């Protein structure tokens, strides 16, 4: 899952990004409304955390512009204001949920997960089965036959990209884009490291290398 945080309080934004990254999400951060609108328009995100009081464009206008352009990405709005009018205005512009500062980080994570579950339930099932492999993307649990396999957050994120496209070729670039944030400038071979670890934990035949194209998850024969 890839999230976008649009928040001009840099310490708060970076703190949220650090916590959500530890939860296994790829997180991009911008501090300006116009930049937030640009990124949310140009990049496919699974959820946007959007502050209301922003330089450039405020959160109401960013949200309204995204909805007017046909983007249905879940939007969680943040504000230091507290009042029914503000909440109503945020929801009227198309936001899916609303959180007033100061808020508990635990509550924010719960809201994020609830919005992502809601979106997933509106589409395909969060449980993916490939042969003996069973991956629940909502609960972040993996079973191989009768046994549960414990994965790190990043390992699960890489596996998720493969399992939701089981049978299809997923490129290294696609995995990088959705599992690591846009600021990542390290070695792209990091994907190979995680695929190798997943093969060791899940069985080598499950993830096949398609030379020059990427990886394909398929039931072992």
Structure described in brief:
The chain has 221 residues and is of the alpha/beta class. Helices cover 42% and strands 22% of the residues.
Main sheet makeup: 5 strands, parallel
Number of DSSP strands? Answer: 12
Q: Tell me the helix content.
A: 40-55%
Structural class by sheet pairing and helices = alpha/beta
Low-confidence stretches: none
Determine the number of helices (DSSP H or I, runs of at least 4 residues): 8
Task: Provide the fold topology.
Layout: E1 2-6, H1 10-22, E2 26-30, H2 33-42, E3 47-51, H3 59-68, E4 75-79, H4 84-92, E5 97-100, H5 105-122, E6 127-130, E7 133-136, E8 141-144, E9 147-149, H6 153-163, E10 169-170, H7 172-179, H8 190-202, E11 207-210, E12 214-217
Parallel strand pairs: 1-2, 1-3, 3-4, 4-5
Antiparallel strand pairs: 6-7, 7-8, 8-9, 10-12, 11-12
Describe the structure.
This protein is α/β, with parallel strands linked by helices and 221 residues long. It is 42% helix and 22% strand. It has 8 helices and 12 strands. The strands form 3 sheets. It has a 5-stranded parallel β-sheet, sandwiched between helices. The radius of gyration is 18 Å and the shape is elongated. The mean pLDDT is 84.
Note the main attributes of this structure.
alpha/beta; single chain; 5-stranded parallel beta sheet; 8 helices; 221 residues
């Amino acid at each position: 899952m890839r999230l976008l945080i649009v928040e001009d309080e840099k310490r708060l934004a970076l703190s949220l990004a650090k916590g959500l990254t530890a939860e296994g999400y790829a997180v991009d951060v911008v501090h300006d409304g116009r930049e937030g609108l640009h990124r949310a328009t140009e990049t496919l995100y699974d959820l946007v955390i959007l502050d209301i009081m922003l330089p450039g464009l405020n959160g109401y206008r960013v949200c309204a512009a995204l909805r007017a352009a046909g983007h249905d990405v879940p939007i969680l709005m943040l504000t230091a204001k507290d009042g029914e009018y503000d909440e109503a205005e945020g929801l009227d512009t198309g936001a899916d949920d609303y959180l007033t500062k100061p808020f508990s980080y635990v509550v924010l994570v719960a809201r994020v997960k609830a919005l992502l579950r809601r979106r997933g339930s509106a589409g395909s099932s969060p449980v993916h089965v490939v042969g003996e492999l069973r991956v629940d993307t909502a609960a972040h649990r993996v079973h191989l036959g009768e046994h549960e396999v414990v994965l790190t957050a990043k390992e699960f994120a890489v596996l998720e990209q493969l399992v939701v496209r089981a049978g299809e070729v997923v490129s290294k670039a696609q995995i990088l884009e959705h599992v690591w944030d846009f600021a990542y400038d390290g070695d792209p071979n990091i994907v190979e490291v995680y695929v190798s670890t997943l093969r060791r934990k899940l069985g080598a035949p499950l993830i096949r290398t398609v030379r020059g194209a990427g990886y394909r998850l398929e039931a072992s024969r």
